[in-house]
Amino acid sequence: MKYNVVHRGDDISKQLMQTFHRLVQQHGLIHDEEAPDIVLSIGGDGTLLHAFHQYKEQLETIAFVGIHTGRLGFFADWKPDEVELLADMMGESAVVNDLRVVKYPLVEIQITTAQGIETQLALNEFTLKGVDATLMAQLHINDELLETFRGDGICISTPMGSTAYNKSLGGAIVHPSLDAIQIAEIASINNRVFRTLGSPIILPKHHHCDIYPRANQNILLSLDHVYVQRNDILSIRSMVAAGKKVKFARFRQFPFWNRVREAFIGYEPINENRP
Ligand code: NAD
C-alpha cells in the first residue's frame, strides 16, 4: 500500500508526520507522493480540504484519513496520541489487502464564460458573492426560474459541507449517504422589490441549479478554501457530481451523528436512566 502525508506546516504536525512515516514504513507501507492509495492529512479540516484539492484528479484511487492537531475536526477525527493505532490499522489493512472506505458525494460546478465551460469540484461547498456591491443573480432550478436573488451571496454545499459554512447560514445538516446538494442564502434582501424563498433547499441528484449573475458584476467565487475574483461569468450550473465521490478510509466506526454531537454539542447526558 502506498501513502502520502499532507500537513498543516506547524511543528506538532511535522513531528507527527515523522512519527507516522517511521511507524508505517515498519509495516511495509511505501511513501509515494505521486500515486498514493491513502492520503493522511495532519492538521485541521482545512488541511484535509487542501489534500482533497491536491489530489482531486485521483479520487477514484485515493482514500483520505485525517489526524487533528488542534481541536476535533469534522474530517480530521483521529487524535495525535492515536497515531500508533492508526499506523497499526493501516498496516493490517495492507497485509490483508482490505481497505474499508466510505464514499461521499461532491458538488460539481460548471462555469460558463464567453470562452467556454470550466468544470470544478468542491468537497464542502462553493459560494458566490458580490465584491463591490451586493450579488444580483437569477436562480433557475431544472431550467425553470425560481427567483431573482439580491444579497450577500449564495452557498451550495455537499452533505459533508452541510456542517460547515452551510450550518452557519441556518442550513440543515444532511447525512452524507444522501446524494444531494443544498442551496442556502447569504443575507438575502427581502422587501417589496426583491423577493427570495428565504429557506435553504435541498436538490437530489439529477437536478441542477443555474445561477445567472448580472452581466459584468465583480464576483467572488469560493470553492472550499480557495477564493477567486471573476467578472467574466455568464452562468454557473451546480449539481451532485455524477460518478465522482470522495473516499474516506474507515479503520474504525465513527457514525456521522456521533461526529455531529462531538463537534457541536459535547456529551452531557442529563437522564441517568438512559445510556
Ligand atoms: P478553517 O480551516 O479555519 O475552517 C473554518 C472552520 O470550518 C474550522 O472550524 C473547521 O473545522 C470548520 N470546518 C471545515 N469543514 C468542515 C466540515 N465539513 N464540517 C464541520 N466543520 C468544518 O478555514 P479554511 O481552511 O479556509 O476552511 C474553509 C472552510 O471554512 C470552507 O469550506 C467553509 O465551509 C468554512 N467557512 C465557514 C464560514 C462560516 O461558518 N461563517 C465562513 C467561511 C468559510
Automatic annotation (TrEMBL):
The keyword Repeat does not apply. Its cofactor is a divalent metal cation. It comes from the Bacteria. Keywords: ATP-binding, Cytoplasm, Kinase, NAD, NADP, Nucleotide-binding, Transferase. The active site is at D45 (proton acceptor). Its main location: cytoplasm. Its EC number is 2.7.1.23. The keyword ATP-binding applies. Pfam families: NAD_kinase, NAD_kinase_C. It catalyses: NAD(+) + ATP = ADP + NADP(+) + H(+). NAD(+) binds at D45, G46, H50, N124, E125, R150, D152, T163, A164, Y165, N166, K167, S168, A187. InterPro entries: ATP-NAD_kinase_N, ATP-NAD_kinase_PpnK-typ_C, NAD/diacylglycerol_kinase_sf, NADK. One of its GO terms (molecular function) is NAD+ kinase activity. It is found in: Cytoplasm. It is an enzyme of class 2 (transferase). Belongs to the NAD kinase family. Involved in the regulation of the intracellular balance of NAD and NADP, and is a key enzyme in the biosynthesis of NADP. Catalyzes specifically the phosphorylation on 2'-hydroxyl of the adenosine moiety of NAD to yield NADP. HAMAP family: NAD_kinase (MF_00361). This is NAD kinase. The lineage of its organism: Bacteria, Bacillati, Bacillota, Bacilli, Bacillales.
